[in-house]
Amino acid sequence: LALASALLLLWALPGLRIHFVPHHLRYQAAHLNAVKQFLARNVHRTAARTGVLIFVSIAERYAEVVADAGINSKVGQNVWDGVVRDLTAHAGDDRLADGFIKAVES
User: Fold this and answer.
1) Where are the domains of the chain?
2) Long-range contacts of range 34-37, CB-CB < 8 Å, 24 or more positions apart?
3) What is the rounded distance in angstroms from the CA atom of residue 22 to the CA atom of residue 86?
């Protein structure tokens, strides 16, 4: 009965399910989704290969900057890491829109 109740609860509240998935699996799935969106939206098709996708997955509490080769040759990973850090800090303060604005300005 307890197992059936737990399964019913997880089925009825899908937002609760994500808390039972290990962090590394959630982040891996979010990363793959970020790359998929980068390609699906043709961000990689700019003339100078300077496309940048700022990706946020609220459910996984995950953010990533996916950048094309042209811009990655000019901008170091530490810059992208700082953008993600600022974005997640703003999201944690319930100011995600401000975080996106700052990320774009960076």
Assistant:
1) 22-105
2) 34/64, 34/66, 35/66, 37/66
3) 24
Q: State the Cα–Cα distance between residues 94 and 78, nearest whole angstrom.
A: 24
Instruction: Report yes or no: 44 and 38 within 8 Å, Cβ to Cβ.
Output: yes
Q: Which two tokens stand for residue 39?
A: 């390609």
Contact 39, 53 (CB under 8 A): no
User: How far apart, in whole angstroms, are the C-alpha atoms of residue 84 and residue 78?
Assistant: 10
Three-class SS state of 43: helix
Choose among 93, 96, 20: nearest CA to 57: 96
We find that the CATH architecture of domain 22-105 is: Roll (3.10)
pLDDT averaged per 10 residues, the chain (length 106): 69 64 87 97 95 92 95 96 94 92 91
Please give the model's pTM, rounded to 2 decimal places. 0.78
